[in-house]
Amino acid sequence: MLTIPLVGVDNICSWLYTLVMTAEINPPSKKTIGLVLKKLRLKANLTQIQLSSKAFGTLSTQRSISLYEIGRIRPDTQNLAKLAAALNVSVSDIIDTAYSVEAAITPTPTEQPA
Fold this sequence. Notes:
The protein is mostly helical and 114 residues long.
């Protein structure tokens, strides 16, 4: 049986992200999450260095921001929560947007003629 955390929306969002990433549910691709993070960063008028500093308090993670955005790696639960907070959005906003993007670009199966 699954145990849902009851303390705070961010904890629930982190729990949901962990569930999605480890369950049989197909998680958003690394590339799609990266596109969403880049769009949100640009909307916030931040450079990768500024986002790195704001989210993690250090510039050494700027390379990670770059790797997230190009889809080479996916942020773990804690890093996604920090990025979401720095971008003034929720973790679920990022995941929901990533799923929406994937739904828009994934072709639907065509029906076979009878």
